[in-house]
Amino acid sequence: MSAKQTPPQATYDSAFLKACRREPVPHTPVWFMRQAGRSLPEYRKVREGIPMLESCMRPELVTEITLQPVRRHDVDAAIYFSDIVVPLKAIGIDLDIKPGVGPVVEEPVRTRADLARLRDLTPEDVSYVTEAIGLLTAELGATPLIGFAGAPFTLASYLVEGGPSRTYENAKAMMYGDPELWADLLDRLADITAAFLTVQIEAGASAVQLFDSWVGSLAPADYRRSVMPASVKVFDAVAGHGVPRIHFGVGTGELLRLMGEAGADVVGVDWRVPLDEAARRVGPGKALQGNLDPTVLFAGPEVVEAKTREVLDAASGLEGHVFNLGHGVMPSTDPDALTRLVDVVHTHGAR
Ligand code: CP3
């Protein structure tokens, strides 16, 4: 089903959703990838003794953690607290998120026989997501909630490698060496990802972000041939709901146009490409999201303000701009620096 989902009017009229739709905004909206998490002492407190994946399955805890950065920083959107591997865990893949390491998959997916382990995701597999989003939208009022999922390539990178990697040698070996198996793997992951995003939208998420964090490791021709079809499938599957679709990856300067063509309404940009240049690469008809280097937050308030104004200046000719960091908040970031940054964006990004 793809009934059009219309959020309450106040949410629909929020600066964040307006910017995603490339409508005029009263101020540049801002949120941060990984705004909920270890940078916040209140997060570390409520997570104490609870493993990461377990915390993603407790609706009250998810609600509290998702709301923490909204209360503290006055950001313009909340992002649902979860992880990209949650839907894989939900269909029975044996994996864990190891502190300081990331997702680790017990038995990597390497052969055609392994594909049988990737069954379809049903809403019942993630009933805690539906429940948590119900609690959240009741608390959030006019503040939009962003749902998210990992994109097929980035999920495949964990599944095939068995854990985090810098080179993705097993995943890329499959992509180059057994293109049929690779295509079938990505197609399976596209269905799982689309189902997971649909659950979030139907529960009340008013935008979705597809994280293809590690896709910048690919050349454009390989992206177009071996990855883009699966991402297109995900975006097409959720298009009918009418919620903005954001597409993000790191080191994607050479892929920006294709990532927009995959079907996003908003293209996320890391700090390596200035937003005016990114807009030329993406082409017309898309909003952009980004792109302050997250390490700038360690340099002191004057530097943060100056670098933020550079980002806002580069975005001044864009039709739609959502301010964000170029990648996630780093755990050692001073939360007060983030609160000040929101204020700088709201003050200087005013129209
Ligand atoms: O605030 C938010 O942005 C929502 C929460 C969120 C988490 N993971 C929580 C989390 C989001 C959006 C993600 C997405 C995610 N997970 C991505 C894509 C975004 C990106 O950073 O590029 C990726 C690649 C993952 C995989 C993953 N999960 C990694 C690399 C790690 C970090 C490992 C570590 O400990 O450094 C995780 C664990 C994770 N996901 C944490 C959080 C808050 C840390 C675990 C903890 O707090 O104990």
Automatic annotation (TrEMBL):
Name of the protein described by the UniProt record: Uroporphyrinogen decarboxylase
Q: Name one GO biological process term.
A: protoporphyrinogen IX biosynthetic process
Q: Where does substrate bind?
A: R34, Q35, A36, G37, R38, D83, Y158, S213, H327
| Family of the protein in this entry | Belongs to the uroporphyrinogen decarboxylase family.
Point out the annotated site residues (description: Transition state stabilizer).
D83
- The catalytic activity of this protein is classed by the Enzyme Commission as 4.1.1.37
Task: Give the record's subunit note.
Answer: Homodimer.
- Gene name tied to this protein: hemE
- Per its UniProt record, what PROSITE patterns does this chain match? UROD_1 (PS00906), UROD_2 (PS00907)
Query: Which GO MF terms are attached to this record?
Result: uroporphyrinogen decarboxylase activity
Quick one: a GO cellular component term? cytosol
Describe the task this protein carries out. Answer: Catalyzes the decarboxylation of four acetate groups of uroporphyrinogen-III to yield coproporphyrinogen-III.
Q: Which reaction does it catalyse?
A: uroporphyrinogen III + 4 H(+) = coproporphyrinogen III + 4 CO2
Q: Keywords in alphabetical order, please.
A: Cytoplasm, Decarboxylase, Lyase, Porphyrin biosynthesis
Pathway in which this enzyme or protein is active: Porphyrin-containing compound metabolism; protoporphyrin-IX biosynthesis; coproporphyrinogen-III from 5-aminolevulinate: step 4/4
Has keyword Nucleus? Answer: no
Where does it localize?
Cytoplasm
Residue ranges of every copy of the Uroporphyrinogen decarboxylase (URO-D) domain listed in the record: 29-38, 146-162
